[in-house]
Design goal:
By secondary structure, the protein is mainly alpha-helical. The chain has 2 helices and no strands.
């Protein structure tokens, strides 16, 4: 098997895992929904 083909197959598998596992995480745990403001926004005082 050509190394380039193997690399392409591995990248495709990783990309599919990233998309589908990420979608599952959002459905199960609400990760990445962004409904709750972070402390960086709620406690902003304008000073670095």
């Amino acid at each position: 098997m050509n190394t380039l083909v193997l690399l392409a197959v591995c990248l495709a598998i990783l990309l599919c895992g990233y998309i589908f596992y990420g979608r599952w995480l959002v459905k199960q745990w609400g990760v990445g929904e962004g409904n709750i403001p972070t402390p960086a926004h709620t406690m902003e005082d304008g000073i670095d």
